[in-house]
Every structure is written in structure tokens, then in C-alpha cells.
Amino acid sequence: MPARTGASKPPSTRDDGAAARLAAARACRAVLDNGQSLGQASSEHWKGMATSQDRALARRITLEVMRWLPRLEWLLSELLKRPLPRRERLVHFLLLGGLAQLETLRLAPHGVVHATVQAARMARQERLTGLVNGVLKGYLRQQETLSGQMPETDSLRYGLPEWMIKRLRSDWPEHWSAIASASNETPPLWLRVNRQRTSRDDYLKALEAEGIGSHSVSGLPDGLVLDQRMAIGRLPGWDAGKVSVQDGGAQVATDWVDPADGMRILDACAAPGGKACHLLERAEVDLVAVESDSTRTGRIEENLQRLGLSAQVVTADAADVDAWWDGRLFDRVLVDAPCSSTGVLRRHPEIRWLRRESDLAEYEQVQARLLNKLWPLVKPGGMLVYVTCSVFHSENAAQTRRFVQTHDDARPDEPPGAIGEPAGEGRQILPGHDGMDGFYLARFVRTASGQ
Known about the structure:
Elements: H1 18-32, H2 38-45, H3 52-67, H4 69-79, H5 89-103, H6 109-122, H7 129-149, H8 154-158, H9 162-171, H10 176-182, E1 190-193, H11 200-209, E2 214-216, E3 223-226, E4 243-245, H12 248-257, E5 264-268, H13 274-282, E6 286-291, H14 294-307, E7 312-315, E8 330-336, H15 351-354, H16 359-374, E9 378-388, H17 397-406, E10 410-413, E11 421-423, E12 426-429, E13 439-446
Parallel strand pairs: 5-6, 5-8, 6-7, 8-9
Antiparallel strand pairs: 1-3, 1-4, 2-3, 9-13, 10-13, 11-12, 12-13
């Protein structure tokens, strides 16, 4: 399609998907050039679209660019005579999105080319519409040749940065390729049934009555997996607090905490509140949820209210104990520590590009500080449970080994039948295990010193 000149036309309300393509390109630029999280970018660029179908398409394209960025960048470099200048980065991301739709999403070629050209026009880039058209049609003509010429590197094969692949190879020599592959899968929609409001069996029947297919997973007494993803607002009993969305791996944490009626429990780094709410659904406990981010603290309150639960929610740095602790010890302490989040890349593929290897040392310091500061808050005979959504040993196995070596009164322990690969003093649930995200869990009983 030749480039047009003249005055820009206002965006049409019938754009054949162009608005979704443009929104995806803007979100990609916000993440990859400006370092925003995908949540921030989507709030800014997706929610203004007219239909849920447009938002879903924008999300799908953006996620695909994040998953396969090295592959798409290589293809674009082969199809362009020279890189686009910095001022035309939006068109660069439009092209990456167009290639993602053709290369991995396999959408109808004519519709992709037409809508991406229209998106460039909506972005007031009329002079580049010919380039957009030519690049995408060039890909369609040369697809087989390009596929044969693509370098056989792990980064292109798995869509991960080289440093991350190197770490996976070192930490998980027998599992690294499966972990890398799982990081690009579309995750299932996991539910957690609120046993204070209904039973899992009854909720299964409610889903069946609505024609919604689902199944349970062994070892997760409150968990269900939907056969197909759907809008959560359509779930029966959602507004009544009968069910929440929570990955199966995150649900395992409650089994490790093992709450019982009457216990006093601390959930450190508690936002958005999924684990805190699960603990309250399991038992009548006195729960303190601490979160440093006031905005995220609000999400904890919202989740508690919808589910009909109550807890003491505190906005504070959990490791700054003097700022919030009332001096009463806890039967259980859950340390849901900040981490690299490499176990949830399939849900948040942008993380692979927002994280740097140098970030790990900072996470490890924060994790160690939380463990050391919160351990004295555990009653003798009580337990601390350490959880991350990382797959790296430096944040998990090495962290828990160091903790045991420096605390004579910490005895490693784990629940019967604990799932996952042994790692340090705990267990690693690898991404994709029974459809779950990647989580690390370790548990320590506080004993008399040295026993």
C-alpha cells in the first residue's frame, strides 16, 4: 500500500483492529523502552479501547512480543535495510507486533497487514505506511527462507535473555530446557474455592450447571483449573466471594503454613492478599498482613472485603519490625519474599526484559534481611515459611542453606507429601508442574537454641 500524504484523518470507530495494534505497540514501547511494568502499560494504553475484543487482542499481541522478542528483532533486522531511527520507535514496535501475529500467532495475513498499516496511519505516521506494508509482505514472501537462516541460539529458541538461560543451565542442568519452554506457555486459569462460603465439590457442580468445564488437581484441596479461560466476572458466585483466582503453586503455601484455629499468623509482603485470604479461609486465625506499598495494601483490603474476611492490614516495611510490631509473637510467619519472579514468566513475560542479572544481588539482600528480622517474631515451636516465585538457586536453595547455617534454632521441616524438586532446605515447584507456576517453599521450626 503506498504511503499517503496530506492531513491526518481522525481515527475511525471501525478500524478493523488497528486500535488494538496501536495500543499493543504503545504498551511494548512503555515496557521495553521506558521500563514500565505491563500492568502500568496496560492501564495507560489498553483500557481506553472501545471493546473487550480489542483489549484482548492488544494483550495477546503485547504478550507475544514480550515472549519472542529476540526472534522478532532478528526477523525485523533482516527485513529492514537499516534500523529505524529512535524517533520512529512506535513504528518499530508496530512492526514487531505485526511479525508476532504472522510468525507465532498465525493470524490471517491480509488482516494483519491491513490493520497494522492502518495503525501506523492512526499514529500519524502516514509517510511510513508504505514501509510497514513492505516489511510485512516481505516477511510473507520470505518466510521459509528466513526460517532456514535464523541462528540456532537458545535465546532465539526460547525467547529469553542470554544471562537468564546461563543461570537456568547452571541451576537446573536436567530441567532448564523444560523450564524455558514452560515460560512461554499460556497458563491455565486457576481458581481457589473459599471454603468459608462453599465446598469445592459444590462449586464444581455450580460450574457444571453453567456449562463451564473444570477439574481438580491432586494435592490442592481448594484448587480448580478451568478447561478454558474466561472473564472472571462470569464465574458463578464471584461477587459473593465464593471463589478467587490464584495459581495452584501459590495455593501450596497455605499447606506449608498449616494454619489452625486460634493461631496468630504474620503474612509479610502480603499484597495482593491471595495467600492471606487463603489462610483466613482455612482457619479462624488472628492474621496480620504487612505490605510496604500503600496502593497494594488497598488491594488486600478489597480482596478481604469481597471474600467476607477480616485481618489487620498494616502499611510498613515488614523488616522494619520496630515500626509496626506490637511485641506479641506469632505461631506462624509467612515470608512471601520479593524476588526475580522467574517462576511466573509465562504470566508476566515482560519480566525477562525488565530484570537484569545485577538485580539478583539486591533481591538476595532483601530476602536475607526479611528472614533475619522476622525470625525472632516466631514463637518457640512455631514455624516460618519462606516463599518465592523464583527458580534461581541464589534466591532459594542458597538463601535457605545460609539461613540454617546462621540460626542454630532453625530446624528445616516440610509437610508430608510435599511436591516439587528438593532444593536447599526446601522444595522447588518448577513452572508447568501440574499446570502450576514456579514457586520455591521452605519451612523452619523454631527450637530451643542448637536443638
